[in-house]
């Protein structure tokens, strides 16, 4: 499965940013060893249900350190029997663009 998630504490930095909290979450994802990609608004992670959800939970906890509230958005592509789809999905789209 691939999960795209975005996590942000309600208590922001003095300039309204959340980069320090997001960095704590991204560190958890990177240390998980699972395939992942981080963009400006979402982090995608691929693996089995239990391992991915464990990472999302730990990343949410890390981002929320010291905050009274945390926002979490999750979108999942659950496709049993498939792995390596984090890049393969993009490769298929690019192939269609080249063929057009």
From TrEMBL:
Ranges for domain Thiamine-binding protein: 3-94
Pfam families tied to this protein: Thiamine_BP
Listed GO CC annotations: cytosol
Domain of life of the organism encoding this protein: Bacteria
Similarity annotation: Belongs to the UPF0045 family.
Protein name: Uncharacterized protein YqgV (UPF0045/DUF77 family)
